[in-house]
Amino acid sequence: MDTPNEVHILANLGDRVLGIRSYPPGSGESDPLVRTSKAALTALVDLDETLGALKVDQPNPVKRGEAAEPAFLRVQAKLADAKRALAAEEAAAQQMRQALELPPSGGSATQEIADDHLRQWVRTLDGDQRAKLFGELGEGKHPEVLVALARFRAPDPTAVQARATYAALARQANPQMVAQIDAAQERVTWSRTLVREVETTLTAALMESGAPVILQ
């Protein structure tokens, strides 16, 4: 018997297990991402049962495909819902990560000028001096220099290093937010895996059944 924390999908197509996935930590039936993902999986199970019954009850392959069309369309609709929920969750997780790991914008011309002066100063340093500076930046010193460097959006190696340092310090200072971001990313990965499995299996089932359905 299935436990509340597992989803078992058994298909007549090859009698193989398509997927067994535990819900992400902290998630449950009330979670929109879990709910829409599981709805797509449930529709896939119903489709599988429909195809299995039709193989027995309807020997005509054309009529069998036509009879299966509503079940295919239900899976397609639930899959579309799951994809929309997944896209929204991915965007939210990305926004959370950026809010933590990217410095705030300068916001004014005066601040941009000040940032540029600091970046110009860093460019005057030799290799040893710059290495020493970044060592101190990694210790949380000179935050105004770090922010000025990290705000620079050009593909500059110094700016890339500064952004990595800023992100590392931000993650170190905000463990609870890091945990929320990691949990959100885990939920996204979980749902993406299930959506991919449902979509792949739906396509394979459609090809085998010959149902008159055009997948969107």
Descriptors:
2 domains; disordered N terminus; 7 helices; 216 residues; two-stranded antiparallel ribbon
Strand order within the widest sheet?
1-2
Q: What is the element string, with H for helices and E for strands?
A: EEHHHHHHH
The count of β-strands is 2
Distance between the termini: 34 Å
Question: Nutshell version of this structure?
Answer:
The chain is mainly α and 216 residues long.
Structure, described:
This protein has helices at residues 32-57, 61-101, 109-123, 127-138, 143-151, 157-173, 175-209; strands spanning 6-11, 16-22. Helix 1 packs antiparallel against helix 2 (61-101), helix 2 (61-101) runs antiparallel to helix 7 and helix 3 packs across helix 5 (143-151). It is elongated. Residues 1-20 have low confidence and may be disordered. It has 2 domains: 6-93 and 188-209, no CATH class; 101-175, no CATH class. It contains 7 helices and 2 strands; from the N terminus they run ββααααααα. It is mainly alpha-helical. Helix content is 72%, strand content 6%. A two-stranded antiparallel ribbon has the order 1-2. Strand 1 and strand 2 form a beta hairpin.
